[in-house]
Design a protein that fits this description.
It is built from 16 helices and 22 strands. It has helices at about 15-25, 35-45, 65-75, 90-95, 110-165, 165-180, 210-225, 285-325, 340-350, 360-375, 415-450, 460-490, 505-520, 540-555, 615-625, 650-660, and strands at about 5-10, 30-35, 50-55, 80-85, 100-105, 185-190, 195-205, 235-240, 260-265, 270-280, 325-330, 335-340, 380-385, 390-400, 405-415, 500, 525-530, 535-540, 565-570, 575-580, 630-635, 640-650. The protein starts with a strand and ends with a helix.
């Protein structure tokens, strides 16, 4: 291998021969030219370490200008000017244009010239080597930075699996990471799921709906081709992440001109697809494609781990659901059966191996529909005639993400047949005992009244006090028995409403008049508010009087002296809303749902004070519901309570008007 390559340009043959022979012995490869144009042609074809040029050359190009052109093409080449017409001006000009040495002819000692040439060639080699090293260092630094960035992205992807069990969130992170290294217009990820597939699309620039549709088509076709599975488009849930839409004056391309699909492979099976698309032709380089492959490989690992975690969690959940004593029925957002555990099958009268669709669950269909409409918990009782069972059914919506999107509904079934039977027996027992107690208590009450009226003879002060206590407690027992009988008759369906057209204002005024004495004893002010447009109601006046009596009576009991009770009647489109509000002790939030339970006495303390049977509100609720109305309570401890109930507007009146 030659020590270097040298170009000698001189119009004197003797000089060219001198350098050829002398430098040839030193191991150099020497190429000669006698004028500038010839030298330029040789320089264009080859690379030289050193160019030796005479200043004065034939052809109109002198050595200094020639060196300048060489330097413009190859800045690393060393230049040496030789001349027989040396001057200070020409030396300065030569150095300014890149010459490293300026020698005069003839040479005193050729050995000295050779030493200069050796030094210049070595310098050029070192310069080139240093430049190559710098370029290599820069290349390696850029490569390391790129690799570090890729590793950072891969680390982010691998970290995602540790805090999410959601494919959508995982692929959003991947697509965000890709956007930092690849100039795509749309990135899409597709993952195969049990329900079909999930497609997440993210756009970096404004795109049209047709552009998004073409990307979706490309991804699905690529997946179907590689996996051999046909996916119906209606079985694919599509999530469009912040797709920018073009403005009125902005025109966004509608066609995909370049795209790249990379499969996600788990255990030699294609489970998904990663896609980058652009409206620019040849938008993705080999480096970009390599990065996509690297990230898709990491994504596939993450998906495999995610699937394992989900499978394990699903197995735990299935085991837990299978072992539950309650029946569990779950459907997805499209009404397809997801879970039907053995207990639910048994309760609903289905065999363990029978295929069941949602259409077979006619008993649950209406409850699911009500839950879907209300978007909250719905509790109903359903009768299964063939199994002679009564089930309590609690249906709740299942929310899938932080935005609260409903992805299905779950029903928890509990067999309450025995409880219903025990309840029926208890009701019959209470009814029987109440009937048996009522007659002797009535007799006791009458005879105590006779004694107090001193019909048999005079009684002293102490005897009158004792008899008054007996009468008061007897009255209380009679009220309790009457309430028990009412509850029993209502629950067994023996109470029949005797509906007539009633003016609700008159009814309320009569109740307030009858309870005025009791309110006055505690200096409680009874106030009323009646809207002027109130219609007559088709109701049972005795039963609604009972409701108002119970509510106002409770308000008097639990309102301290000097308080206020307000009774209101308001007209609404389809119903009349009645309310009884007091300034009493109030009810704690945790007890509001319990106030209508039988024998429930909320926040009652032992000793003297307001007492009751705990049946009044339960009876009131039953009577209001028999009228197709609703009843509820609102309260804040220390600020009083408000009981509200509704009564439907009279349809009877409308029918009468139509007949007339």
């Amino acid at each position: 291998m030659p020590a270097g390559k040298i170009l000698v340009v001189d119009d004197e043959q003797i000089i060219r021969n001198l350098f050829s022979k002398t430098l040839g012995r030193e191991g150099y490869e020497v190429v000669t030219a006698k004028e500038g144009d010839e030298a330029l042609k040789l320089f264009a074809k080859d690379t030289f370490n050193l160019a030796i040029m005479d200043i004065k050359l034939p052809g109109g190009v002198d050595g200094v200008k020639l060196l300048k052109q060489f330097k413009e093409t190859d800045p690393d080449i060393e230049g040496m000017i030789i001349t027989g017409w040396a001057s200070l001006e020409s030396a300065i000009e030569a150095l300014k244009n890149g010459a490293s040495e300026y020698l005069t002819k003839p040479f005193d000692r050729i050995e000295d010239v050779v030493r200069v040439i050796n030094r210049l060639v070595e310098k050029q080699k070192l310069t080139v080597k240093n430049k190559q090293l710098q370029e290599e260092i820069k290349r390696q630094r850029d490569e390391l930075e790129r690799r570090a960035f890729e590793l950072g992205i891969l680390y982010d992807v691998s970290e995602a699996i540790s805090y999410t069990l959601d494919y959508k969130q995982l692929f959003e992170l991947i697509m965000d990471s890709l956007s930092k290294v690849i100039d795509y217009d749309i990135c899409a990820s597709f993952i195969l799921t049990e329900k079909g597939g999930s497609l997440v699309v993210k756009a970096a620039k404004a795109v049209t709906k047709d552009f998004v549709g073409e990307v979706k088509k490309n991804v699905i076709e690529a997946f179907s081709s590689l996996s051999g599975q046909t996916i119906n488009e209606e079985d694919i849930s599509v999530s469009l992440e912040d797709i920018p839409r073009p403005g009125k004056e902005e025109k966004a391309p509608a066609r995909v001109k370049s795209f790249f699909n990379v499969p996600l492979i788990v255990k030699d099976k294609v489970v998904g697809m990663l896609n980058v698309s652009s409206f620019r032709k040849d938008a993705f380089s080999l480096t970009s494609i390599r990065i996509i492959y690297t990230i898709s490989y990491q994504a596939a690992i993450a998906v495999e781990r995610l699937r394992s975690i989900i499978a394990a969690e699903k197995s735990k959940m299935e085991s837990m659901v299978e072992s539950m004593t309650e029946g569990v029925v779950m459907i997805d957002e499209r009404g397809r059966m997801v879970i039907l555990n053995p207990q639910a099958r048994q309760m609903l009268g289905f065999g363990l191996d029978k295929e069941i669709s949602i259409f077979a669950l006619s008993n649950l269909d209406k409850i699911f529909q009500e839950c879907q409409d209300k978007k909250k918990l719905v509790t109903k009782e359903i009768l299964i005639p063939q199994e002679k069972k009564v089930l309590q059914c609690n249906v709740s919506p299942v929310k899938g993400d932080e935005e609260g999107k409903i992805i299905g509904m779950v029903a928890i079934l509990r067999d309450i047949t025995k409880e219903k039977e025990v309840d029926r027996m208890k009701t019959e027992f209470i009814s029987t005992v109440s009937h048996e107690l009522r007659t002797p208590l009535t007799t006791i009450k009458e005879f105590v009244s006779i004694l107090l009226d001193e019909i048999p003879g005079n009684i002293n002060k102490d005897q009158k006090e004792y008899l008054t206590i007996v009468k008061g407690n007897t009255d209380r027992l009679v009220r309790l028995i009457v309430n028990l009988l009412d509850i029993s008759r209502i629950e067994t369906g023996r109470v029949k409403l005797k509906r007539v057209l009633v003016n609700p204002v008159t009814l309320v005024k009569d109740v307030i008049l009858s309870m005025g004495v009791e309110a006055n004893k505690k200096k409680i002010k009874l106030e009323t508010f009646f809207e002027p447009t109130l219609p007559d109601l088709y109701i049972d006046p005795d039963r609604i009087t009972q409701v108002f009596t119970n509510l106002i009576g409770n308000a008097i009991k639990f309102t301290p002296e000097g308080g206020r009770i307000t009774v209101e009647l308001k007209d609404r489109k389809k119903e009349v809303v009645a309310s009884v509000a007091d300034t009493g002790i109030g009810i704690s939030p945790e007890n509001l749902d319990k106030v209508f339970n039988r024998f429930q006495q909320i926040d009652r303390v032992d000793g003297p004070g307001a007492k009751g049977t705990g049946l009044g509100l339960s009876i009131s609720k039953a009577l209001v519901e028999m009228h197709k109305g609703r009843i509820w309570a609102e309260s804040e401890p220390g600020k009083g309570s408000k009981f509200i109930f509704t009564l439907p507007r009279s349809k009877f009146r409308r029918k009468m008007v139509n007949i007339q």
